[in-house]
Write a structure and sequence with these properties.
The chain is mainly alpha-helical. It is built from 9 helices and 3 strands, in the order H-H-H-H-H-E-E-H-H-H-H-E. The structure holds heme C.
């Protein structure tokens, strides 16, 4: 009887019954959610686009200057996009609203939406905790431009092969 009960529990575990999806997903372990978020944004390339000066200075960019977005445009068939000021985004949203952005995972290139969509809710929440800890600072990034409108420099251009 006990054996059957244990077996049933094991099957339930395998099927994930009674265990939420969030608990099954991998996540970064650190001394706090804020520390996990700082780590994730550093190794997850978020600063590459969302922090001006990161590509030249890397981790030498002071913590308080990070993730304030960029006026550097990304120009292509989608128009022109700008990496948003994530500190303002996090300050304006509740944690569930922040997680919803990741669950939806839809937006303009070159933001790696597909990767973010695959991130565990716990890691996404850690990034939110880090951004809230940094606090709101800086200006909003420029609004995206529609296709065909030439942005003012500086910007990258994606050139597709001629059809
Ligand atoms: C290659 C550049 C690039 C990288 C790397 C990148 N982003 Fe982005 N991100 C963007 C751009 C550009 C946008 C604006 C997209 C749009 O306008 O739809 C954006 C938008 C976002 C938004 C939406 C914010 C809002 O206010 O709507 C979130 C959230 C976000 N990024 C989080 C992250 C996180 C977290 C990481 C790292 C794990 C990351 N990004 C890495 C370029 C990037």
């Amino acid at each position: 009887m006990i054996g059957k009960f244990a077996a049933a529990l094991a099957v339930a575990g395998l099927l994930g019954i009674g265990v939420s999806a969030a608990q099954q997903q991998p996540y970064v372990v650190a001394e706090s959610a804020v520390a996990a978020g700082e780590y994730l944004t550093s190794i997850g390339a978020c600063n590459d686009c969302h922090t001006d000066g990161w590509d030249e200075q890397g981790t030498a960019v002071p913590r308080e200057d990070r993730l304030m977005g960029s006026g550097f445009g990304w120009h292509g068939p989608w128009g022109t996009s700008y990496a948003k000021n994530l500190r303002l985004t996090a300050a304006e949203l509740s944690e569930p609203e922040w997680l919803e952005i990741f669950e939806r995972g839809i937006g303009l290139p070159p933001m790696p939406w597909v990767n973010l969509h695959a991130m565990s809710a716990r890691d996404a929440a850690a990034i939110y905790a880090f951004l809230r800890d940094l606090g709101p600072r800086g200006e909003p990034a420029p609004l995206p431009l529609p296709p065909g409108v030439r942005p003012t420099p500086p910007y990258f251009t994606l050139v597709l092969p001629a059809s």
